[in-house]
Amino acid sequence: MSAEIIIVLLVILFLLVSLYREWLWPPVIFFISVVVLTLSGIITPQEALGGFANDQVAVIVILLILSEIIRHSSLVDKMFDAIFSGANSVNSFLWRMMGYVSISSAFFNNTPLVAMMMPYVHSWSNKNGISPSRLLIPLSYAAILGGCMTLVGTSTNLIVNGMAIEAGLEGLNIFDFIYVGAPMLFVGFLYLLFFGKKLLPDTKDMVED
Question: What SS3 string covers the chain?
Fold first, then answer.
């Protein structure tokens, strides 16, 4: 193998191990990797900085800002109270939560959406004597599955679209992913509702420790 291939493999190994072990803050880990690849001549400085000028990255930042604004709004709890009013059982709450999250995640970034929902879901589970793990895991999966339906639903779709445009290919439309994403969401939805509750852990709430 050439020296460049060895360096790339070492950088990938560094990324995987350091992210898994949480040695450093993720942005720092990626920054170190980019610096190593740049100093070794594998990528040019223009290529290293090119991502900051990518339109799709700017869209991701805007979506994060919008989601964060909504998360801190005083109307959020009132909106959740209206959505989940009358949900007195785990199944009824799961139906509403997954439906709301999956649709919302198609148009908002997944991470802030889950962060916005977590306190409410955690509070509801404690009030009803249910382990939070039985609700928080489906919350995360619903956000991931819903985000796969549209171009803006996940950061990955936006980045791939930007790379396609830079390569001279035609850009993707916002609903081009729905033909694959919608069946994935449907199957995942049914699986979590009918089989997931048998597999999800019923662990003690760690916040109470």
Answer: CCHHHHHHHHHHHHHHHHHHHCCCCHHHHHHHHHHHHHHCCCCCHHHHHHHHHCHHHHHHHHHHHHHHHHHCCCHHHHHHHHHCCCCCCHHHHHHHHHHHHHHHCCCCCHHHHHHHHHHHHHHHHHHCCCCCHHHHHHHHHHHHHHHCCCCCCCHHHHHHHHHHHHCCCCCCCCCCCHHHHHHHHHHHHHHHHHHHHHHCCCCCCHHHC
**What are the tens digits of pLDDT across the range 21-73?**
888 888 788 889 989 999 999 888 887 776 665 665 666 666 666 666 666 66
Cβ neighbours of 182 (radius 10 Å): 16
**pLDDT in the model for residue 206:** 53
Task: Report, as ranges of residue numbers, the positions in the chain whose pLDDT lies below 70.
Answer: 1, 50-76, 201-209
